[in-house]
């Protein structure tokens, strides 16, 4: 092996190592979910899966927990624009639908909320039964896009067509 060949081989190996480290860092640091909880008051939401023979219900409950908590937090805050941001992006009329939900359920969101993720046979859809502390109940319909991000079905749209 010539010295020149060894040097090129070393540079190529170093470049691949740097590229690999950058890819791993990007993968670990990325945030695939475009929403989060605000740093305001804590929300009191317990999320669990309905008892089921299918193990994917537990996984779905884990996947949607952040979205359900963000939903309750935004209901509590009463900001329709902010609530609309966690609605499925391919839906229309999100702000109007968000305002209706705030009017109907916003006053109940400050209390402890129990969320039960239901067993649905469709992989990209699920329902969550919310039970507010005062007995008020709501069914929240959720849909998942092609990037495995869960969204609230808010407004008008096709839940299967992201």
Give a structural overview.
The protein has 162 residues and is α+β, with helices and mostly antiparallel strands. It has four helices and five strands. The chain has helices spanning 3-29, 56-77, 80-84, 94-105, and strands at 45-49, 113-117, 125-132, 137-144, 150-152. The protein has a five-stranded mixed sheet, covered by helices on one side. A hairpin with a 5-residue loop joins strand 4 and strand 5 (150-152). The radius of gyration is 22 Å and the shape is elongated. The termini are far apart.
Output the keywords.
five-stranded mixed β-sheet, 18% strand, 5 strands, 41% helix, 162 residues, alpha+beta
| Shape by Cα distribution | elongated
List how many beta strands DSSP finds.
5
Poorly predicted sequence stretches spanning 5 or more consecutive residues: none
Report the portion of residues in β strands. 15-25%
Helix content: 40-55%
**Which strands sit side by side, in order, in the main sheet?**
1-2-3-4-5
Structural class comes to alpha+beta
Instruction: Give me the Rg, rounded.
Output: 22 Å
Q: So what's the oligomer here? A: single chain
What are the secondary-structure elements, in order, as H or E?
HEHHHEEEE
Please tally the helical runs, counting DSSP H or I stretches of 4 or more residues: 4
Biggest sheet statistics: 5 strands, mixed
Mean of residue pLDDT values? 87
Termini Cα gap: 55 Å
């Amino acid at each position: 092996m010539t010295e020149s060949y060894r040097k090129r081989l070393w540079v190529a190996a170093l470049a691949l190592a740097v590229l690999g480290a950058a890819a791993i860092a990007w993968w670990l640091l990325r945030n695939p979910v475009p929403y989060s909880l605000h740093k305001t008051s804590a929300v009191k939401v317990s999320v669990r899966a309905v008892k089921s023979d299918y193990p994917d219900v537990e996984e779905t409950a884990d996947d949607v927990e952040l979205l359900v908590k963000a939903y309750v937090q935004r209901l509590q805050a009463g900001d329709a624009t902010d609530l609309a941001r966690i609605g499925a992006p391919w839906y229309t009329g999100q702000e109007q639908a968000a305002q209706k939900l705030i009017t109907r359920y916003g006053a109940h969101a400050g209390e402890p909320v129990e969320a039960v993720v239901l067993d649905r046979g469709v992989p990209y859809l699920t329902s969550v039964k919310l039970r507010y502390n005062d007995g008020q109940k709501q069914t929240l319909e959720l849909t998942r896009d092609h990037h495995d991000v869960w969204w609230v079905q808010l407004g008008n749209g096709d839940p299967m067509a992201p």
